[in-house]
Amino acid sequence: MIYANYDEYEKTNRKAYDKFNKGKIFYAFNLEQLKEGMESIGLNLKETKKVAYLGAGVYIRANEIQNYKKFKEKQRKEFEENMKIYDFAKSAFKSELANHEYCYTMDPYDAINALGYTSNKINNEPLLSKALNAAKKELLDEY
Question: Do 62 and 89 fall into the same domain?
Fold first, then answer.
């Protein structure tokens, strides 16, 4: 799917993620949250073998791991396709530069990294390089 901009992509994917994770994924950072999370997906605390830990406090029903991988792969492919479109790429960079306080740090590294890129990749892709530079300029002009 082609998106008008990064914000539209983010909103659409947030809705899709929320729909996907209902009854399958929960977040827990302590034992009480783990118990509540297990109950939210229809399991009890003794059924821990039926969940898998994804990292960063995220747990998923073990039998949903393959569906989760397919879901994330679809999102990744959509994102990569859209990043081949200059206006989308510029909006993605601008959004992440703002999120990572580029106007204060003047360092785009965290924004580039958040989008799954490296500086080398950006420098070797003319469209991405042009979009990043335009996003930096726009953000600084607005600041």
Answer: no
